[in-house]
Amino acid sequence: MDKNTFTGLFLIMVIMGASFFFMKPSEADLKKEKIQAHADSVKRGQIKSPAVTAAKADTSGAKTANKPVDSAVLKSPFGAATIGTQKFVTLENKDIRVKLSTQGGKVYSVELKDYKTFNKKPLILFDGDKNRFGLNFTAGNNSINTDKLYFTPTSGDLQVAEKDSSTLTMRLNYSPTQYVDYIYSLKGTGYKVGLTVKTTGLDQVIANTSSLNVDWSASMRRQEKDIDQERRYSTVYYMNTDNDVDYLSEGKDDSKEITDKKMQWVSFQAHFFSGVLIAKEGFTRSKLSVVTNVQDTIDSKQMTAGVIIPKSSDGSYPMEFYFGPNKYNFLKTQGYHLEKQVYMGWGFLAYINRFSVLPVFNFLSQFTSNYGIIILALTLILKLVLSPLTYKSYLSMAKMRILKPEMDEIKAKVGEDNPTLLQQEYLKLYKQAGVNPLGGCLPLLIQMPIVFAFFRFFPSLFELRGQSFLWMHDLSTYDSVITFGTNIPFIGNHISLMCLLMTVSTLIYTYFNNQISGASGQMKYIGYITPIIFLGALNSYPSGLNYYYFLANMMTFLQQYIIRLMVDDKKIHAQIQDNKKKPEVKKKKSGFQARMEEMMKQQQAAAAQKKK
Questions:
Q1: Which of 186, 405, 440, 549 lies at a CB distance of 3.0 to 4.6 Å from 91, suitable for a disulfide?
Q2: 345: region left, alpha or beta (phi > 0 left; psi from -120 to 50 alpha)
Q3: What are the tens digits of pLDDT across the range 422-467?
Q4: d(Cα 14, Cα 349) in Å, to the nearest integer?
Q5: In this structure, what are the phi and psi dihedrals at residue 270, rounded to the nearest 5 degrees?
Q6: How confident is the model at residue 25 (pLDDT cuts 50, 70, 90)?
Q7: CA-CA distances (angstroms) from residue 439 to 71, 84, 411, 575?
Q8: pLDDT in tens, 95-138
């Protein structure tokens, strides 16, 4: 491969790599949020029922309003509901524990019982007064938000509705015959919590009862070892009723208002887990936002959604929550296309991952639960499938290496002062020898989309979370062999051993590739730049991803060794010489050669015009 061709290919790879690594969303501009903390502790009381645990209200440590009550407030719509004591009721099944608050009648916190945080603590999606859920409406001349009003758990509604489910109603009273009910339901297993809002006798009180304005916000708790990576993949997702999924920026504060299409659901995604609000009739209007919260290291991001829900045919407002893992195959079983919030890459990269890589990964998972072995088998299959391209690339580079002495003779004869003429002579040689100078590069470029697809596949793969292999305790995050006390430019606060091994193997691969292609001079060293860049870029990425790249390099070494035994340089040289002897009319001109010749003619014409 000649110097100009190699330089062009290298620039293409640099542009592709730079666009992939450095044009992705940057980390959010850090923004402090003033939040008034309510630090009173509470205890949980529980009542057992078949398959489902529904806990009764716990008044110990509850917050009570001690301010003097203005009589005007009591006479205002829902004024009596401004006074009360915050109590907690827990709905619990095999998989989740949902704490409800009488203040706002809302979901106060959610714990996923089968999962732990990176430091083995209970995994709580969100918890505390930074989470809000309230209805906005006008009653009389007053604007009401139910988030701070006090609901009452109706004792008659805490019951076993079916063998494997329970229901609980939170009631906001306007009068004994006029009220708003939040009807919660939870089955014996699963991560879905039903919520139906029903108004009774309020048609003359609330200005518009044909739809509900709902404000929901949550400060998503930190779950993973690398909070920077968790924030990188955490944001608000949403899907319209046409099954089109979109999301807000992952790397900066962002907001969006959707008015042209009905939304089916909105998801507060925290990388591997999410809270999703689903409207069975759809949201007629949505206003979404995400804010990076750096006030402490407990929370990852603050997410908000303001939505309008139309009334259903039976006069209620049916909704549903999903609080659970972002496991692609599991989400597909939950309906509403929730699996589309698992981001698999942009454009055709998503198709590669969803319809090629993921099915193979799932197939291999049937035979072993060791994900290190699964990644090994996946890499082996991929290399076998791509082996014809690898062979063609090696063969093309061998041909260029054999032609190099003749190319050096042409350079010595023509000189480097006339690059146009030099390229023309090179093209004549390629044409006579029947060699495509890009034959060794194009197969590598064809494989680049797969490399990029895996770059997004592994960070999104829930199955790797908490899975260990060799010294790597968690394949979904980095494996730090050395940890620094501070951030070091380009590297960060640690050194990942698997990333280091991947970099070393890539440098070795570059060395042997130079031997095959016959690169010399500056071209021998230019290929070493990219692996060094990748060391800094991938040092904080999942060890499973770096493990795959390392395996791919090692298998490429093996492939090249086998191919080298199959390829005879003397036979290639003899074939090239035979091609030169063939009549000119029988030589097939490639599209590349034709374009290059046309470009050379144009350059010569331009140079001649300048001399005039």
A1: 186
A2: left
A3: 777 777 777 777 777 666 666 667 778 888 888 889 999 999 999 9
A4: 19
A5: -115, 65
A6: very low
A7: 86, 77, 22, 16
A8: 999 999 999 999 999 999 999 999 999 999 998 888 899 998 88
Quick one: DSSP state of residue 106? -
For the entire predicted model, the pTM comes to 0.78
Q: 3-state class of 418 per DSSP?
A: coil
DSSP helix/strand/coil, 221: strand
DSSP 30: P
Q: What is the 8-class DSSP label of residue 339?
A: G
The Cα 11–Cα 23 span in angstroms is: 16
10 Å CB burial of residue 76 (0-12, 13-18, 19+) is: middle
d(CA 204, CA 197): 18
Kindly report the number of other CB atoms within 10 A of residue 439's CB atom. 19
H or E segment at 502? helix 497-517
- H helices of 518-611, where? 523-526, 529-538, 543-566, 569-581, 591-611
Q: How confident is the model at residue 375, as a pLDDT?
A: 95
- pLDDT at 51 exceeding the cut of 70: no
Contact 424, 600 (CB under 8 A): yes
Beta bridge mates, 484: none
Mean pLDDT of 323-340: 94
Q: Cα–Cα distance between 559 and 95 in angstroms, integer?
A: 47
- In the block, tokens 């494996």 appear at 479
CA distance 167 to 339: 27
CA dist 428 and 587 (Å) reads 11
pLDDT at 67: 52
Number of helices followed by number of strands (H, E) in the chain: 15, 24
Q: What is the mean pLDDT of the chain?
A: 79
- For CA atoms 474, 476, 482, 485, the dihedral sign is negative
| Residue 292 falls in which region: left (phi positive, over 0), alpha (psi -120 to 50) or beta | beta
Helix (H) or strand (E) holding 101: strand 96-101
List, as one string, the DSSP characters of 238-269.
EEETT--EEE--SSS-EEEEE-SS-EEEEEEE
E-only strand ranges, 38-78: 47-49, 52-58
Is 414 exposed, middle or buried (CB count within 10 Å of its CB: 0-12, 13-18, 19+)? middle
Count the neighbouring beta carbons within 10 Å of the beta carbon of residue 448: 14
Helix (H, G, I), strand (E, B) or coil at 77: coil
**Is the pLDDT confidence value at 395 over 90?**
no
Q: How far is C-alpha 224 from the geometric centre of its chain's CA atoms?
A: 14
Strand partners, 317: 197
Exposure on the CB side of residue 102, measured as CA atoms within 13 A:
24
Cβ 213 vs Cβ 137: under 8 Å: yes
Q: What are the tokens at 142?
A: 């007053």
